[in-house]
Design a protein that fits this description.
heterodimer, A: about 425 residues, alpha/beta, 10-stranded mixed β-sheet, 8-stranded parallel β-sheet, B: about 260 residues, 6-stranded mixed β-sheet, 4-stranded antiparallel β-sheet, about 30% strand
């Protein structure tokens, strides 16, 4: 206990050491927020084993490492005509009126220690603002690379995405790092989808094999808006993705799809929470996991349908493929329904490759080992296939084929 | 006239699932270029026979022998049988979300070619082959790009089976109740595909409950399977006789299976 306290003090010490530098970034209001957040973090501490939400994803190993604050790095952001795409530090300086009404208003740092810690260190990151009635054709790519070598660093990644009424945008968040490096990524992304807007979000996580990756994505869906998320997790020794989506008006649609592959002693936790606070909203969720070795997976899908949220249509599916006897999954659908005229379904399957499918492939001449590889690839690629950004989809497809020792797909050439 | 090569010889084949004996002494010889229909009621052992020939491991062969071009078929794994030239069109084709029809077929074709000591097809050569066969079977490009059988209608699935057959170019095709669940148009489309693939080098075994399919794929021989044995064989007119009289009149010809 004392040791963990010391670690919290490590972050407090870092905050105090950095405070002048932090305060220089953004308005005094932002800095008051930082101070409140670090105080809140010190109060809460890291989640303990008795915290139900963290029962299968212990933070002990993470809490033991005195992660030092990584130097502020630049992130690679391409300008988009018709939108503001820039570093968050720059946005706090130049566009405070667009930033401050939203920054840290949705991702609840008062309740979540990692969000509090991230909020305390808000400095840089990505700011994406699309004005109303704007169709952003090219995807905005936010590339977070953890390239620094040698020290156990923490990087508090922050994205703020504000999409105006009836606008259309595609966001790609990438996380990568070097093998062997021990580091912590603590990410918070807030996305505000304006009324009638349509946002597709893709997260490609390929952290180094020793990385800790904690991420919260908070999405506010305006009236009749549409949001889709595809999260593909392949890296990290300890990974937790949390997605919270809140309907803030009627007629919204939210799609949360995810795929993760884990082996060795990886821990991958996906927590999703969809708050059906308004009537006539639809949510569809499909998470697929492949676990090998001694990997452990956690899926917790909470769907909260409030009393007024009549005509809610919520569907949740979690499928897990266990490739070894030592791999485990804890899957928990959590439906809380207070409205009476709703359609809510959930289903979870855990198992091995389907024997009939294996036979089907073999009956076409494909050998047993390749049939297994192909079906495992297919299981994962079912999610990747849904990605609408061709470059991201093709890159993931190729990496999956390679990981399964399968020949490259030449769909591009075939179509040519 | 050139003498037809014997392709498949089934000799006194017995097979069971768990403790239940389903095939109880099947004898059948199929020569290159021939089309054989195997008819029977549900539970007569039709699909078991197809499964045993293709290597489905749910069945245990307890007696008898199957030779395919002189080789002991039962010794081979399912993929080896396919590479030797056996093709089973499934009664219930499997859906494989996440893999396109094209990718899947290319993997299959190249596995077969590798086995035969032929160079693997590159994208261009494979595309050429596929284009040729899609025309033959009226398969759309869109269907090729879609994941294997996912969301296909019953007719599309069965047409896709015949399309795979066309691309894999087997010596012996076994069609397991390919007509089940098809409306007349889909049935005709499938039959047209099969007829287009008839050749003096290829044999086809059509397994069906109903005579209807045989109006379109006209067999050289018809065999009636009953309680795990072939109880009657004849020409195509036998199918019509079965259509008219049903299967009951044949039931006295074969004993009830004895409990094991």
């Amino acid at each position: 206990m004392t040791e963990v306290m010391e670690r919290q003090n490590t972050y407090l010490a870092a905050f105090e050491r950095m405070e002048r530098e932090l305060a220089a970034s953004g308005t005094p209001a932002v800095h008051r927020l930082r101070k409140a957040a670090i105080a809140r973090f010190v109060e809460m501490g890291f989640p303990g084993p008795k915290d139900e939400e963290w029962r299968f994803t212990p933070t002990a190993a993470l809490a033991r490492i005195p992660f030092d604050l990584a130097p502020a790095g630049e992130i690679d952001l391409a300008m988009e005509p018709g939108a503001i795409v820039c570093d968050l530090a720059e946005a706090m300086k130049n566009h405070p009126a667009s930033v401050e009404p939203h920054l840290a208003r949705y991702a609840d740092w008062r309740k979540h220690p990692f969000i509090a810690l991230n909020t305390a260190f808000i400095r840089g990151g990505a700011f994406i603002y699309v004005p109303p009635n704007t169709n952003l054709k090219a995807p905005v790519v936010v590339d977070f690379q953890a390239g620094y070598v040698g020290t156990a660093f923490v990087r508090h990644r922050r994205c703020l995405v504000v999409i105006g009424d009836n606008s259309r945008a595609t966001i790609v968040e990438r996380y990568s790092g070097l093998p062997g490096e021990i580091y912590l990524t603590n990410a918070v992304t807030e996305i505000i989808v304006g009324p009638g807007a349509h946002v597709d979000h893709y997260k490609v996580q390929r952290e180094g094999d020793k990385a800790f990756h904690q991420a919260t994505m908070q999405v506010q869906l305006g009236r009749a808006s549409r949001f889709s998320s595809h999260a593909v997790t392949q890296g990290g020794q300890w990974v937790r993705n949390e997605i919270n989506a809140v309907f803030e008006g009627e007629g919204g649609e939210c799609i949360l799809n995810g795929m993760y592959r884990a082996s060795g002693e990886q821990v991958v936790d996906n927590h999703t929470f969809i708050d059906h606070a308004y009537p006539h909203c639809a949510s569809h969720e499909l998470y697929k996991g492949i676990l090998d070795g001694k990997a452990r997976g956690v899926f917790n899908g909470k769907i909260y349908v409030r009393q007024d949220a009549q005509k809610t249509d919520a569907k949740q599916t979690n499928q897990t493929l266990l490739l070894s006897d030592d791999a485990t999954i804890n899957t928990k659908p959590q439906l809380e329904i207070y409205a009476d005229d709703v359609k809510c379904t959930h289903g979870a399957t855990v198992g091995q490759l389907d024997a009939e499918s294996i036979f089907y492939l073999r009956s076409r001449g494909i050998g047993l080992a390749e049939a297994r590889s192909l079906l495992t690839y297919a299981f994962a690629n079912d999610i990747v296939n849904r990605i609408q950004v061709a470059k991201v989809r093709e890159e993931l497809e190729s990496s999956l084929l390679e990981a399964h020792h399968l020949p490259a797909s030449e769909s591009g050439k075939e179509e040519a | 006239m050139e003498k037809k090569q014997t392709m498949l010889t089934i000799d006194n084949l017995h097979a069971r699932v768990d403790d239940k004996e389903i095939l109880r002494g099947i004898n059948l010889t199929v020569k290159a270029g021939e089309v054989h229909a195997i008819m029977g009621e549900n539970g007569s052992g039709k699909s078991t026979l197809a499964g045993v020939l293709a290597g489905r491991d749910a069945y245990e062969v307890t007696e008898g022998e199957v030779l395919f071009e002189g080789k002991d078929l039962l010794e081979l794994d399912p993929e080896e049988r396919a590479r030797e030239g056996i093709f089973l069109a499934f009664q219930y084709p499997v859906e494989i979300p996440g893999v396109s029809n094209t990718y899947f077929l290319k993997a299959a074709v190249n596995a077969v070619r590798k086995h035969r000591g032929l160079p693997e097809y590159d994208a261009r050569a494979f595309l050429k082959l596929v284009k040729e066969k899609t025309k033959l079977l009226h398969i759309s490009d869109e269907l090729l790009k879609r994941p294997v059988n996912e969301g296909f209608s019953g007719g599309e699935k069965k047409r896709n089976e015949i399309f795979q057959m066309a691309v894999l170019n087997p010596k012996l095709a076994i069609l397991d109740e390919t007509d089940s669940g098809l409306d007349i148009d889909a049935l005709k489309a499938v039959a047209d595909g099969v007829n287009a693939l008839r050749s003096p080098e290829r044999a086809v075994v059509v397994i069906t409950h109903y005579q209807r399919l045989l109006n379109y794929i006209v067999p050289d021989y018809v065999h009636v399977l009953l309680r795990g044995q072939i109880v009657k064989s004849g020409g195509k007119e036998l199918a019509l006789e079965l259509e008219e009289k049903g299967y009951d009149w044949l039931k006295d010809t074969v004993a009830e299976p004895q409990p094991a």
